[in-house]
Amino acid sequence: MAFTFRDFPVAADDLRSDVLAGLAACPKSIPPKYFYDEAGCRLFEAICAQPEYALCRTERALMASRLPDIAAAVGPLDCIVEPGAGECSKVRLLLDALQPAHLVVLDIAGAPLAAAAQALAHAYPQLAVTALGMDFIRDLEAAAPCLPPGRRLIYYPGSSIGNFAPDTATALLARFRRLAGADGRLLIGFDLKKDPLLLHAAYNDAAGITAAFNLNLLERLNRELDADFDPTRFRHYAFYNPVAGRIEMHLVSLAAQTVSVAGRRFHFALGETLHTEHSYKFRRDEFSTIAGNAGWKLVDDWEQQGFAVQLYG
Ligand SMILES: C[S@@+](CC[C@H](N)C(=O)[O-])C[C@H]1O[C@@H](n2cnc3c(N)ncnc32)[C@H](O)[C@@H]1O
Predict the structure, then answer these.
(1) Which amino acid residue places its CA nearest to atom 7 of ligand 1?
(2) How far apart are the C-alpha atoms of 259 and 250, rounded to whole Å?
(3) Is the CB of 33 under 6 A from ligand 1?
(4) Any ligand 1 atom below 6 A from CB of 86
(5) In the prediction, which pLDDT does 1 show?
(6) H or E element that contains 153
(7) Is the CB of 59 within 6 Å of ligand 1?
(8) pLDDT per position as a tens digit, 223-268
(9) Based on the number of CB atoms within 10 Å of its own CB, is 181 exposed (0-12), middle (13-18) or buried (19 or more)?
């Protein structure tokens, strides 16, 4: 078993400065990458098991049923790189089918990533696994020296690309392009535009797990930034905006209140929102344009029940 873990600690200063800047802005907002403390990672896995949230299940089913086609289209390669790998579970199908010598996984939640990647290294003794605990928005280029030479596939499942507005998504995909190298490939999964009521239900599950995930951000700020948010005074509010083509997730203040964060005080008016996440939905052609603007050419694509996986080279 070959396993390496390297931590690029997300500076506590980043969290502090991003949150203070976001709370001072109008409208208030906090980047979604801060959802993922240990509790946030567990809650995300629980969201994937909710009956209303078909995204993860559909992607897995698509990957399983089309795996031979996908593997043939990807072709031989030396290394899979997965940004935002989380539990490192989705990549297993590709490891089985493509049998690369190396896997490099990146996640801002370094400790859960290290545990998941180490378990993977045990399960695949022939595979060299490198886990990088990093904020890839900030540090992606620092991953380059950790990659072996040879042909690379960037694997970015889960519709995580939907958390970025189209321009920012193009900029991130262009950085993936440089990391992949001239003969590299990108296999990316994203959620398609569909009945807005289905989308609405997916982010408003009856068990309240997405609400708990959203509100956990306030608990994190209480713990890590010495804040005094009362989560019972904020409402998880998520809806599909068909004009912008995205789910918007907010924490809406249920009262006029003042909150202290890292020694600074912020006022929330009754009904004022703290925006926490966008989750863009795409048509396949829309997404090809975004990826094309980043220098990727569409090689193949697959669709199943409102979810798409596309291969670029
Ligand atoms: C929605 S989950 C998806 C997990 C997994 N890829 C899947 O498809 O099930 C997003 C993952 O990306 C990670 N993540 C989010 N923003 C990140 C960033 N800026 N840098 C590194 N990891 C990030 C989170 O910690 C989380 O594990």
Answers:
(1) 158
(2) 17
(3) yes
(4) yes
(5) 72
(6) strand 152-156
(7) no
(8) 999 999 999 999 999 999 999 999 999 999 999 999 999 999 999 9
(9) middle
**pLDDT tens across 43-57, in order?**
999 999 999 999 999
Nearest atom, ligand 1, residue 89 CA: 9
The Cα 247–Cα 163 span in angstroms is 9
- Distance in angstroms (rounded) separating the CA atoms of residues 99 and 101: 7
Class of domain 52-194+282-312: alpha beta
Distance, first Cα to last Cα, the chain: 31
Residue type, 295: G
- Gyration radius (Cα) of the chain, Å: 19
Residue 31 CB less than 6 A away from ligand 1: no
User: Is residue 86 classed as helix, strand or coil in its secondary structure?
Assistant: coil
Per DSSP, 193 falls in state: P
- Rounded to whole angstroms, the Cα distance separating 227 from 229 reads 6
pLDDT averages per 10-residue partition of the chain, 313 residues: 88 87 98 96 97 98 98 97 97 98 96 96 97 95 95 98 98 98 97 98 98 98 97 98 98 98 98 98 98 98 98 98
Q: What pLDDT sits at residue 110?
A: 92
Domain boundaries, the chain: 52-194+282-312
d(CA 19, CA 24): 9
